[in-house]
Design the sequence.
C-alpha cells in the first residue's frame, strides 16, 4: 500500500490550494482515506476524511466550510481543496489510509503574506 501527496506550497492568506493523494496497492474505491496535518509543536490532527462506500465526508472543526475532500475512484486519487486559507493552516499535510495504517511522506503548506 502506497500513498503519495502532492500540491503543497506557499499561499497567501485568503488564497487557495489543492492537494492530491495518489494511492496504490489496494482496492481504492472501498477504503476510507483521510487527510491529517501537523504543525510545528502541535499534535497531528484530522483535517478531513472520505469514506470509500458512499463517499460520506467529515471535517475537523477548524476547516469546516473552507476545505473540501473528494475522490476520483477511476484515478485512485483523493483531493483536498483548501479555500480561505489562514496562517494557522500552515503545516505538513499527510494522506492516510486508516485500514492499513499507511501514511504518505507529507507535503508542506505555508500560508503567509
Sequence:
Amino acid at each position: 500500500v502506497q500513498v503519495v501527496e502532492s500540491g503543497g506550497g506557499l499561499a497567501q492568506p485568503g488564497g487557495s490550494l489543492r492537494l492530491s493523494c495518489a494511492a496504490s496497492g489496494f482496492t481504492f474505491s472501498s477504503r476510507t482515506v483521510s487527510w491529517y496535518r501537523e504543525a510545528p509543536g502541535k499534535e497531528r490532527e484530522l483535517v478531513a476524511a472520505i469514506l470509500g462506500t458512499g463517499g460520506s465526508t467529515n471535517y475537523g472543526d477548524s476547516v469546516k466550510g473552507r476545505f473540501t475532500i473528494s475522490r476520483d475512484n477511476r484515478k485512485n486519487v483523493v483531493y483536498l481543496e483548501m479555500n480561505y486559507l489562514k496562517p494557522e493552516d500552515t503545516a505538513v499535510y499527510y494522506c492516510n489510509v486508516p485500514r492499513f495504517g499507511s501514511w504518505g511522506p507529507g507535503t508542506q503548506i505555508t500560508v503567509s503574506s
In short: DSSP finds no helices and eleven strands in the chain.
